[in-house]
Design brief:
The structure holds 2 protein chains of 2 kinds. By secondary structure, chain A is mainly alpha-helical. Chain A is about 70% helix and about 0% strand. The longest helix of chain A is centred in the middle third of the chain and has 35 residues. Chain B folds into 4 domains: about 70 residues, no CATH class; about 70 residues; about 170 residues, Jelly Rolls, CATH 2.60.120; about 150 residues, Alpha Horseshoe (Serine Threonine Protein Phosphatase 5, Tetratricopeptide repeat). Chain B contains 17 helices and 16 strands. Chain B is extended. In chain B, about 40% of the residues are buried.
């Protein structure tokens, strides 16, 4: 209705909500468990899949050989994906341009080691995550200290006190209060539209860990929203 | 948040307040709430401002930020060129550091720390200094030299060694960090000093006007002259494949583990160099330029006026001033650089045609396929693009990406060039004798007919196989179509590879994989298969010699020595014994 992507996700995936949500999702829990049981964990031997189209393979072979035109094509194809993901992950940030350059420079330098074990976009997401993870952790720690100090000054929940801000900005601010691990999974799942399997591949974590992080991210956001004045 | 209770008397459930609304929020947003509950949820939102705001906020959280709403989430068209240029500048800085460099760096740091500690100890305990100074503890330098320092002078030497270790680690070895996979070793002298003629005809002589070279193996200082109507393909170092066009005069002037120099006086050459990080840099000197290559496919031409033209199909080439080695231009893939006019143009059909004998590439790994074990090499993996198709890694402007369209004839040409004519495959038709014998067999019934048919089928298949092998040999014998025979032989092996009477195909395909693809693991496997199936074949001696040669070219010097020993044991007077002894004099005792 309001958020079709959320509707689709909740229909297919497992959640661990409390109280009445549990009752509503019981039938799906069994289905999801069965899907998870049948889905191989990351690292297990899986049948060989061609992740790249013929056109991508040609572009990749030329890019590996240092062909500037192929590199440009690679950049043109994927720069909006990388930039958009950084924006959704970090919000409006002045360092996004610099990060985009870093990510593509790393990707170009590592093209020779790309084994085509995933799609190019998944591989780029992995590089993006590795590049931004430390930055996210650093900012999260810094903001936590700032929020505590603000709370101490105002005597109330300072980190949630944005009554005059626009709803959209406030939603973005709430997202920034999620820990980096939870935020990455939430952004990948709800904003980028990736499956849990793909996220597990990008983050190199077990599927169960990703599912647990997604559940905790939703619960934390729910708590932030309901606690917001 | 204030809690409301919107329940009317008689409704179930008895109470629907803010807590219930909050619990239903995600389900309502996901459109998964029962219509009755949705009605209650909506009714509560209308009555409760706090829950309405909570709903808006939650909806905004799940919708996520829109990159298009901010200038930071999108890129202006005019900025993309600038950003792409900045990315290319940063690529060298982002290359992963090989573990060898990290180990060297760590070793340097440890050595510095240890020597600093030793120096501090020596200063703090002056009465021990003379003893330290007078008691050398061994030899060495760097981290291993810590045990060998003697007194203050030894410490200073160790500090110097440690600093050199650090510098070497940061420089990434002798030629800098060219490749993240810098795990190779420097080529053996037996590889560097010798080249061999792979195909074609030309006049080879030693330096200056020395005597002609009469074998297919040559050394540094060899001069090549290719007459009109001929061409010559040579291999150097096991990784350089060069094609000399008619009218070319060129000399191999220098070879060392760091540099390999050719002097092109006139003519047109094409070179494919699958360079590994520790391989020498190839320099091509022309009368007006120095072309420096670190691994690519390109052509160099010295035209009638003595001007140099460089065309690059893969990778990048630097053109330098031959006198002071000042940078003149770099030529990217797909471009032709004319030094006389300092202009760039597109690579033309003539340039690609000259390089076509080098087109038998193993895709994806710079000419060397990853082969963890020989067992993994299948006939399918031997299939290459050597069927007249221009490799996809070559950049030829105007040529579509569709493989079927990547042909010479589809390249725009500036001047008319002679075309290559390909052999049309002949159709094997059954002869009359066969048809009459079949008709006679039809008159019979039962087992005789079946035996006859089986026998005829086997004979026909053998004849077809021989005819196919002859076709491949015909392609191989012509200098212009030799590189095309790889695909022909691969198809032949797929169809007749298990036939013991046609085992010669393994030998031929091994030679082709070795000479034109530099795919030595595949070549060695093919030779071993040939020897395994036909150890007494008249060409077995050639196969053993080629096996030895492929081991050398592949850098497997120990394997080459073993195979050279095996050859000499079997053929002490063999026609290739001299060549083996030339490179490994230590094997003389085997005779």
């Amino acid at each position: 209705m309001l958020v079709p992507r959320l509707a689709k996700r909740l229909t297919n995936r497992v959640d661990r909500p409390t109280n009445r949500m549990v009752q509503a999702m019981q039938p799906m829990q069994a289905t999801a468990d069965l899907v998870d049981a049948l889905t191989p964990e990351v690292g297990e031997d899986a049948p060989r899949v061609d992740y790249l189209t013929a056109e991508e393979q040609i572009m990749l072979s030329q890019a590996r050989a240092g062909n500037a035109r192929a590199l440009r094509q690679f950049y043109d194809t994927h720069q909006s994906q990388v930039r958009g993901h950084l924006y959704r992950l970090l919000g409006p940030d002045s360092e996004i341009d610099d990060l985009v350059q870093t990510i593509f420079a790393r990707a170009f330098a590592a093209l020779a080691t790309f084994k085509a074990g995933s799609t190019l976009s998944t591989w780029l997401y992995r590089i993006t995550t590795n590049t931004t993870h430390n930055l996210l952790r650093h900012r999260f720690r810094r903001n936590r200290v700032k929020s505590a100090f603000s709370w101490w000054l105002s005597g109330r929940a300072g980190h949630l006190q944005h009554s005059h801000a626009d709803v959209r900005d406030e939603a973005l601010r709430l997202l920034q209060h999620l820990s980096p691990d939870l935020r990455e999974v939430f952004v990948f799942y709800h904003y980028e539209g990736l499956t849990l399997q793909e996220i597990a591949q990008i983050l190199d974590k077990p599927l169960s860990t990703i599912g647990d992080r997604l559940t905790r991210a939703r619960k934390r956001l729910h708590e932030f929203v309901t606690a917001s004045p | 948040m204030t809690h409301h209770d919107d329940n009317l008397p008689g409704e179930t459930p008895a109470r629907y307040g803010c807590l219930e609304c909050q619990e239903d929020a995600e389900l309502a947003l996901a459109d998964r709430l029962h219509p009755t509950a949705v009605a209650r949820y909506r009714a509560h939102l209308r009555a409760c401002g706090d829950c309405r705001r909570m709903n808006q906020l939650l909806e905004a959280v799940y919708r996520g930020p829109d990159p298009a709403s901010s200038g930071l989430g999108t890129l202006r068209e005019s900025s993309s060129d600038r950003e792409f240029a900045a990315i290319l500048r940063r690529v060298p800085l982002e290359r992963p550091v090989p573990w060898t460099h990290r180990v060297m760096h760590t070793s340097g740091v440890v050595a510095l720390a240890t020597t600093a500690a030793a120096l501090g100890l020596a200063l703090l305990l002056p009465d021990q200094s003379p003893r330290l100074e007078n008691e050398p503890l061994g030899g060495g330098s760097g981290i291993s030299g810590i045990s060998g320092i003697s007194g203050i002078s030894g410490i200073m030497a160790a500090v110097q060694g440690a600093r050199q270790g650090l510098e070497a680690a940061e420089a990434g070895g002798p030629d800098g960090p060219d490749d993240p996979d810098d795990r190779g070793i420097a080529p053996h002298q037996a590889q560097v000093d010798y080249g061999r003629v792979i195909a074609g005809r030309g006049f080879l002589s030693t330096r200056g006007d020395g005597p002609p070279v009469l074998t297919d193996t040559f050394t540094v200082g060899t001069r090549f002259s290719v007459e009109a109507g001929q061409s010559l393909q040579v291999g150097l170092l096991g990784r350089i494949l060069a094609n000399f066009e008619p009218g070319t005069e060129i000399e191999w002037t220098q070879a060392s583990p760091r540099h390999l120099d050719l002097a092109l006086e006139r003519g047109h050459i094409a070179v494919r160099y699958e360079r590994q990080p520790t391989d020498p840099v190839l320099n091509i000197h022309t009368p007006s330029a120095l072309v420096r290559v670190v691994g690519t496919v390109f052509t160099v031409e010295v035209d009638e006026q003595g001007s140099t033209n460089v065309s690059v199909l893969r990778g990048k080439v630097e053109v330098l001033n031959p006198e002071d080695q000042a940078f003149v231009a770099d030529v990217q893939a797909g471009y032709r650089f004319e030094l006389e006019r300092l202009t760039y143009g597109d690579v033309g059909r003539h340039d690609v045609r000259v390089a076509m004998p080098l087109s038998d590439e193993v895709p994806g790994h710079g000419g060397h396929a990853e082969r963890p074990g020989h067992e993994l090499v299948s006939l399918a993996s031997l299939t290459t693009s050597a069927d007249g198709t221009i490799p996809t890694s070559w950049v030829v402007p105007g040529l579509p990406a569709d493989l079927s369209q990547r042909r010479l004839e589809n390249i725009l040409t500036r001047t008319p060039q002679p075309e290559i004519y390909f052999d049309r495959p002949s159709v094997v038709r059954p002869d009359r004798r066969y048809l009459s014998s079949l008709a006679a067999a039809k008159a019979d019934d039962g087992q005789g007919l079946i035996d006859k048919l089986v026998r005829d089928a086997a004979e026909t298949r053998l004849e077809e196989g021989r005819a196919a092998l002859e076709r491949c040999k015909t392609l191989y014998q012509s200098a212009q179509t030799r590189y095309l025979s790889a695909r022909c032989l691969t198809r032949f092996m797929e169809a007749h590879g298990e036939n013991a009477d046609l085992v010669e195909g393994h030998l031929l395909i091994g030679i082709l994989r070795m000479d034109f693809a530099n795919d030595y693991p595949a070549a060695k496997l093919a030779f071993e298969r040939f020897l395994e199936r036909a150890p007494g074949h008249p060409e077995a001696e050639l196969a053993r010699y080629r096996l030895w040669l492929a081991s050398i070219e592949d850098g497997d010097v120990n394997g080459a020595i073993d195979r050279g020993r095996e050859y000499l044991r079997r053929y002490p007077n063999g026609k290739y014994a001299g060549k083996i002894l030339q490179r490994f004099p230590r094997l003389v005792s085997e005779l």
